[in-house]
Amino acid sequence: MRFILLSTLILGLSFVTFAQQISPIAPLPTKKQIQWQALEYYGFVHFNMNTFTNVEWGEGKESPSNFNPSALDCRQWARIAKASGMKGLILTAKHHDGFALYPSKFTTHSVAKSPWKNGQGDVVKELAQACKEYGLKLGIYLSPWDRFHPAYGTDAYNKIYAEMQKELLTQYGPIFEFWYDGANGEGPNGKKQVYDWPLFHAMVNKYQPNAVQFSDNGPDIRWVGNERGYNYETSWSPINREEIYPGYPKFDAYKNGQENGTHWVAPEVDVSIRPGWYYHPKEDNRVKSPDSLMKIYVASVGRNANLLLNIPVDTRGLIHPNDSASMMGFADLRKKSLINLLNPNSTKIQVSTTHNSTYLFKNLLDTNPASAWAPNLRDTQPSIQMKLSNPVLSNTLMLQEPIALGQRIKSFTVEIESENGEKWQIKAKTIGNKRMLTFPERKVKHIRIMLDEYRAQPLISNLALYRIISTRNESLFH
User: Which residues form the Glycoside hydrolase family 29 N-terminal domain (predicted)?
Assistant: First the structure.
């Protein structure tokens, strides 16, 4: 009898716990997609044959003798990346010209034919070791287009590309991201390749199942739709993935994602610190400033995307000091700016309603992306009010949704009141993993957030108020 009563009690408690949980709304991110989104900021390294021929796209006719860096030091790359706050580096192991930065068995166009280290070098191996030493994640870019390989444009090439994938996925340790390029032009025989995407995706899933794969349609993360360093005001992680493919000519129709998309494929913003992707001496004084990089950060990470910042390594095989200085300045700006000014002891929070004791308003300031506040189901005008006993000089409001339960909020309104009674309103669309709303710098004393439209019971996991600093007093607005 005691056993029956105890079992009934346990079952009852389990039901209560289950009933307290808010149901997720599909599509949902996988564990590796959530882990990828948490990285926020990492680096691209465009370094290859094009570095030495001073072009952006090579033709595949270049001699391997051109590739001969005088002072290649992947530890320098990793050291600078780590100091700048990057979480990983993605290397162009093979660009469109077909030259491979490692001694592949499946092409004759590689470092094995170059004078660098008498043909015994392997840039991918050196970077993998440097990333391990500095605690960075390693990513691989392998362009499917190959303007050198004689098999390009035939069925055999797809198997060759897959074998090159296998080499890169099995010889260099863990890979966090595999980056495909959507470019698809003619090979040396004048033919274009029909890529076997299911085969390519299967190779990564087999050998590096924890790696996310990037292309126009994923399958895990997608191109944002431009290379200028910003995501769009409306940004849905769900997208109708099966309707598009890498190099899709009408991608603009999908750049915002889709509210009722079938798959979770969050966007990645890829942008170079210089005008070009590869190193060109004439661009040494055209490196983006720390202020410009901060503006890019707000418009990428602050709009439900991750930021992939490209650093063009020079002909020595080193990051140029101008690029390094800008990266360090950007790191310093983030350190000084991304401090939450909403002190729990001096910020009074009021919410319109609360779902239950699991989804309390105190979760809004706990920095945990998994906990959240939720209004009850009968609340037709969910809202959050924050009153600051000590007004703070600020210019940015940050909001987050707990994306493990799906993306929910379609639109919301923020009302801000300054110390002197000045008021202004911001109307915005999606939130997703992270949303930063910028406004003219004021001493803020009161903030009201109203959730206007949502796909399912709304959830907010975190709030923060920042004063993002500009060394040149540049506007944050993109």
Answer: 61-327
- Binned at pLDDT 50, 70 and 90, residue 471 comes out as confident
Q: What percent of the chain has pLDDT over 70?
A: 94
The two tokens of residue 150 are: 């004689």
In the block, tokens 């987050």 appear at 400
DSSP string, 343-394: -TTTEEEEES--S-TTS-GGGGGS--SS--B---TT-SS-EEEEEEEEEEEE
Amino acid of residue 296? I
* Structural domains of the chain sorted by starting position, each given as residue range(s) with its CATH number in brackets: 31-337 (3.20.20.80), 347-466 (2.60.120.260)
Signed CA dihedral, 5, 7, 10, 14: sign only: negative
| pTM above threshold 0.90 | yes
Q: Is 243 exposed, middle or buried (0-12, 13-18, 19+ CB in 10 A)?
A: middle
What is the number of other CB atoms lying within 10 angstroms of the CB of residue 192?
Answer: 12
Helix 155-170 to helix 197-207 angle (10° resolution) is 20
